[in-house]
Write a structure and sequence with these properties.
By secondary structure, this protein is mainly beta. It has helices at residues 128-141, 148-156; strands at residues 2-11, 17-21, 25-30, 35-42, 49-56, 64-66, 72-85, 88-90, 98-101, 106-107, 112-113, 117-123. The protein has one domain (2-124): Sandwich (Lipoxygenase-1), CATH 2.60.60.
Length: 166
């Protein structure tokens, strides 16, 4: 099975160590070039399976550059933009997978790997298309219905009827 990872790398103090596993180690490199990174990998993994994307070797005391207010100026980190598993593109679903820090803390709704830990894509079905369809159902069920009135109030700061519109 072919895998494609699209990421964006921040390379403060030499860049992050990135390891990708799917039944075995598929990629394990220190990435020193900042910016977009596309990895095309191949694996013999059988489904169901877990794909892990890991950052390791980061020293939180010196590998994150902060300004005096604590805002991150630069970092040894990366974020995952998309993952293609065979011909199935995983993009919006990324925010629903867990990032497990080395200390065991689980971060949700994040695709930014700024800590040492593993981002886990859990493919819990032997059919990748059924797995993707299940995720699509979850995303649709959890998507708020668009309201033009709410949008207009948020953007312009008033309700339609305050202008005499009904």
């Amino acid at each position: 099975m072919d895998l494609e990872f699209k990421m964006h790398v921040l390379n403060y103090r030499g860049g992050p160590n990135i390891r990708i596993c799917a039944d075995s180690v598929l990629y394990d490199e220190k990435v020193s070039t900042a910016g977009p990174l596309t990895l095309n990998l191949s694996t013999d993994m059988k489904l169901p399976a877990k794909i892990t994307v890991e950052q390791y070797g980061k020293d939180m005391r010196r590998d994150t550059h902060l300004d005096p207010t604590g805002k991150i100026i630069n970092d040894k980190a990366f974020y995952i933009e998309s993952v293609k598993i065979g011909d199935v593109l995983v993009k919006n679903e990324l925010y629903h997978f867990d990032f497990v820090k080395d200390n065991g803390e689980v971060l949700k709704n994040i695709n930014y790997l700024g800590f040492n830990g593993k981002f886990v894509i859990d493919i819990d079905n032997e059919d990748i298309y059924v797995w993707q369809a299940n995720w699509q159902k979850i995303l649709i069920a959890n998507t708020e219905e668009f309201s033009y009135e709410k949008f207009r109030a948020e953007i312009f700061g008033y309700e339609l009827d305050t202008l005499g519109d009904t």
